[in-house]
Amino acid sequence: MEQPIFRAVELLDMAVEIELRGLEFYEACLARAEHPQVKQALQFMAKEEARHGEIFTRMKEGQVLYELPESYPGEMRAYLAGFVSDKVFPSAEDHPKAMSLDDTDRVIETAIEFEKRSILFYSAMKQVIRPSEGKIVEQVITEEHSHIRRLLALRKDLEGSGSTADEGRG
Amino acid sequence: MPDRLVRAPYPMTKVFYRPALAQVLRVDQLTQSENLLALRMGTGEPLNHEPGQFVQVSLFGYGEAPISICSSPKGKEGFEICVREVGTVSGAIHDLEPGDWIGIRGPYGRGFPVVELEGKDVLIVAGGIGMAPLRSLVGHIRDNRRRYGRIIVVYGAKNPAAILFKNDLKVWFEDEGIELYVTVDSPDESWTGRSGVVTSIIRDLDLGSSASMNAVVVGPPVMYRFVAMELFRHGLTEDRIIFSLERRFKCGIGKCGHCQVNDLYVCRDGPVFRYSELLGRSEAVEVWAPEEQ
User: Fold this and answer.
1) Range B20-108 has CATH code 2.40.30.10
2) So what's the architecture of B121-292 in CATH?
3) Which residues of B70-107 are buried (b: 16+ CB within 10 A; e: fewer)?
4) Which residues in B have their CB inside 8 Å of a CB on A?
5) Chain A interface test: which of B31, B229, B232 (most A C-beta within 10 Å)
6) pLDDT by residue (tens digit) across B159-202?
7) Which one of B128, B226, B279 has the shortest CB-CB distance to A71?
8) Which residues in chain B are classed under CATH 3.40.50.80?
9) ipTM of this model?
10) How many distinct structural domains can be found in chain A?
11) How far is A130 from chain B (nearest CA, A)?
């Protein structure tokens, strides 16, 4: 199965959907978090998801729109959201067990793990995107790599700032 | 290169373009916009259709529309069609009453490969009004149950009010020979069943060894590729995924070109195709995304 099944513009829609799920996930974590440093990290991650969502939305500009007729408004979005629902971020009911909020390091590690999963997903999707649009998939993957770099930088910053979440609670 | 097609034999009708009369025996309202019509040919003869075929239904003064046959071929009384009220012709057909007469051409097209599927497991995936032709297939399988392996039916509707063939679903649910899953995209307060698009159910299915599994899929255009992706995840290959395409059939006999997909006339060479037959054909836009040729 290596046929071009999707168009790049649809992959960008998936990317926007994944970032939205990420935003929801981090906001849900934020609502449960107690330690200031963990909160700070989660706020950063939520902002990053929103920023990336905007980047992918901008990338859609200039792409040839591809819209199959829907049998009801929102049908395409429903299928698209269903398709990416388990690809990167956990479903809403699995939010509480998906990320430990006790330790900033582990929060960042988990976030990096999500980014790696997204890179794996987009790399696999490249096989089913039109070859002529492969560059756009590469751009999406590059964005996710930059996201990982920013998370690593955040970890370094927080290490430099002193206390960990566990220490703070003690 | 796409697979070669096994073309359907031309319909038995001698004069292709002349409708035969059929009488409306019964009209059942299925939903707010869909009616089920039971029809009998004026000659009293059976339609002799295959599951997956369609008829051209005409009403004098209104026009003609292609409509899937939704009953099992075994029905001796006549046959059934499910009509969604979307335009002038379908609206007029929708308003018919028992005793009214209409014109019928067909049955036309290549139906589901019911003989090839014998001895195999079959996953039937229906979205919305795609359940209409698939009801004919399920009916045929139930009429010949011993010839088929495991049968799984996954049906998705927009919301609970849009679920078609509720009486049939109850019967299928009670039938130990069928594994039935029904889901709605947008549940309301009354709905206690599953929610989400059909792919969410397919993803969680345990298909066991998929070696003998074939999937038959009919639904809205946006559904096909997402279903295909889930089927690939289960190990199905393109030659074991069967789609029925919807196009604007006019003549129904491969002459006018309204339904043409590259070198295929969907009305004559389809509407049922294996996925492998559509690969390489750039105009089959709902099932893959090839480069424009």
Assistant:
1) yes
2) 3-Layer(aba) Sandwich (3.40)
3) bbbbebeebbbbbbbbeeebbbbbbebeeeeebbbbbb
4) 127-129, 158, 185, 196-197, 199-200, 203, 220-223, 225-226, 228-229, 232, 237-238, 279, 285-291
5) B229
6) 999 999 999 999 999 999 999 999 999 999 999 999 999 999 99
7) B128
8) 121-292
9) 0.86
10) 1
11) 6
